[in-house]
């Protein structure tokens, strides 16, 4: 079976799925615009209901004035390591879409799911370029909506950090032991033929 990054798949698959993980240690360096645009381009091609593409990415590069604003949205624990990232970003999903041939927007049942697909594509592309993407829900979601001018018909989904993986010695001591790829639950815990098992 496929093995990579000290992890082993139960069934054959492309190794890049195992190579991607979410480190917290980053090299303190800027990210070239062409690399960042390639990462966002991958998100662009994610599938979405009615091809509505409800994802919106708001970001700040570490050498830009807005970086401090994005960093300040994170809880203190996440600030302790995300401060070294090349880019900090927030993913937002649009809760409505305009169907073809209609004049009024309608509610989107899958806006969060579709935004999640875009995040997955982005994270995989970042990994393919030698970067890491670490997602977070530990941030002030309500303040993010205000400080980042998020429209009322959008939902703040998550924050994330992007950068080149660095040495774990740069992390606070309490995080160093956790700086390794994590395992995954087996398919038997989340894949059920014919419906949920009866008790």
How would you characterize the overall build of this protein?
The protein is α+β, with helices and mostly antiparallel strands and 199 residues long. It has a single domain (26-166), classed as 3-Layer(aba) Sandwich (NADH Oxidase). The chain contains 7 helices and 8 strands; from the N terminus they run ββααβααβββαβαβα. The strands form 3 sheets. Strands 3-4-8-7 form a 4-stranded antiparallel beta sheet, sandwiched between helices. Helix 2 (33-44) packs across helix 5. It is globular, with a radius of gyration of 18 Å. The relative contact order is 0.21.
Map the helices and strands.
Elements: E1 3-4, E2 7-8, H1 16-19, H2 33-44, E3 55-61, H3 67-73, H4 76-82, E4 87-94, E5 96-97, E6 106-107, H5 111-128, E7 132-136, H6 141-147, E8 154-163, H7 173-176
Antiparallel strand pairs: 1-2, 3-4, 4-8, 5-6, 7-8
N-C termini distance: 33 Å
Structural class: alpha+beta
Query: Which word captures the global form?
Result: globular
Number of helices: 7
Helix content estimate: 25-40%
CATH superfamily grouping? NADH Oxidase
Rg calc: 18 Å
Mean pLDDT: 96
Structure summary:
The protein has 199 residues and is α+β, with helices and mostly antiparallel strands.
Q: What structural keywords apply?
A:
30% helix; alpha+beta; 7 helices; NADH Oxidase; 199 residues; two-stranded antiparallel ribbon
């Amino acid at each position: 079976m496929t093995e990579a990054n000290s992890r082993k798949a139960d069934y054959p698959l492309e190794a890049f799925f195992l190579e991607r993980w979410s480190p917290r240690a980053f090299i303190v360096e800027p990210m070239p615009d062409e690399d960042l645009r390639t990462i966002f381009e991958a998100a662009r091609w994610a599938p979405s209901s009615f091809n509505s593409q409800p994802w919106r990415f708001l970001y700040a590069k570490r050498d830009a004035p807005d970086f401090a604003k994005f960093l300040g949205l994170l809880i203190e624990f996440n600030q302790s390591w995300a401060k070294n990232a090349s880019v900090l970003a927030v993913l937002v999903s649009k809760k409505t879409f305009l169907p073809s041939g209609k004049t009024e927007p309608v509610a989107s049942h899958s806006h969060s799911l579709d935004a999640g697909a875009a995040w997955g594509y982005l994270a995989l592309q970042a990994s393919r370029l030698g970067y890491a993407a670490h997602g977070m829900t530990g941030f002030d979601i309500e303040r993010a909506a205000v400080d980042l001018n998020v429209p009322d018909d959008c939902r703040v989904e998550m924050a994330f950090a992007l950068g080149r993986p660095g040495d774990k010695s740069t992390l606070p001591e309490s995080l160093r032991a956790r700086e390794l790829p994590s395992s995954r639950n087996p398919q038997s815990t989340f894949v059920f033929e014919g419906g949920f098992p009866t008790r």
